[in-house]
Amino acid sequence: MSHQVEVDQAFVQAPEHRPKPVISEAGGIPLIDLSPIFSDGAGTIVPVTLVQQVEAASRDWGFFQVINHGIPPELLKAAETAEREFFALSEEEKKKVRRDEKNPLGYYESEHTKNVRDWKEVFDLVLHEPSEVDVRGLELKNKWPQLPPGFRETFEEYGKSVEKLTFRLLELIALSLNLPAKRLNVFFEEQTTFIRLNHYPPCPYPDLVLGLGHHKDSGALTVLYQDSTGGLDVKSKSDGNWVRVKPIPNSFIINVGDVIQVWSNDKYESVEHRVSVNSARDRFSIPFQLRPASHTNVKPLEELVDEKNPARYDEYNWGKFFKARRDSNYKKLEAENIQITHFKRV
């Protein structure tokens, strides 16, 4: 009996999207040392060379990895430990905090990407709970589990620390676009940022199944912590091949999302990525996704548009866009979910 029959067909990728047995780690995404702005002796002036590195990485890859980012290794270890302990709980215990149609936060084990089921389980929480039901009719209240002990405190501290780092990165992105450092901050005063905990169990069908299918991030910036297993693949803009992002202890992987692609009027591109499964080891990761306020209308920034470089996108509302994206995660839809390409001017 072939293993194609044994694996649930809902997980099986179309032949063109199945991972190759070996994926190169050579010539990987750029590594940027943030010690010029985070070390004890760092001044308030951001070195030009650092801005140039961020510009080149955002333009050429849409991804980069950062070290010496100011977040203590002990906090990263605590977050990874709490995540591992949560996913090790019984199904019955995890389902006490399962998400539902009204509240998309909490535990979930059957997400789809591009209409194919992912080989993973997740736990979602928001950084800031909105005071009322948001424009999408959703009630965003964190469903904190009783177990493991200290889970909530760990991730509240983790969220605050990564938020500070993310806003420094956002300032570097703004400077790299020749904008004032805080130019983009206004869009995040009522941010819809969320944190996801991912667990990718070992999978006996690494040639057929993906932990997370190929996709682009719809928000502004993603700041990802990953464990030592590895599995994140980024599509190289230069040759279209998949490149495996090598795990570096205590580092973060940063990628620009669709919102920054539109704001930058295509100077920076939100790049396709995916997660390959491992047949022997679990993989754990924690993406922090910086997202604007629901009422934000996203369009190319006027400072970056002129007669020679006209706006390449029509304006769209972030809250409505995200609701349409989220609906497709819940159930298999016949049509492709909404993309920024739908707002692209011909």
- E-strand count: 16
Q: SS-based structural class?
A: alpha+beta
Radius of gyration: 20 Å
Head-to-tail CA distance between termini: 50 Å
Helix content: 10-25%
Uncertain regions: pLDDT < 50 for 5+ in a row?
Answer: 1-5, 329-333
Largest sheet, order of strands side by side? 1-2-12-9-14-7-6-3
* Tally of helical runs: 8
User: What is the mean pLDDT?
Assistant: 87
Largest sheet: 8 strands, mixed
Can you offer a commentary on this structure?
The longest helix has 26 residues, at 151-176. Helix 3 packs across helix 6 (151-176) and helix 4 (73-87) crosses helix 6. The chain is 25% helix and 20% strand. The protein has 8 helices and 16 strands. The chain is globular, with a radius of gyration of 20 Å. The protein is α+β, with helices and mostly antiparallel strands and 346 residues long. The model is unreliable at 1-5 and 329-333 (pLDDT under 50). An 8-stranded mixed beta sheet has the order 1-2-12-9-14-7-6-3. Strands 8-13-10-11 form a 4-stranded antiparallel beta sheet, with no helix packed on it. Strands 4-5 form a two-stranded antiparallel ribbon. Strand 10 (232-235) and strand 11 (242-244) form a beta hairpin.
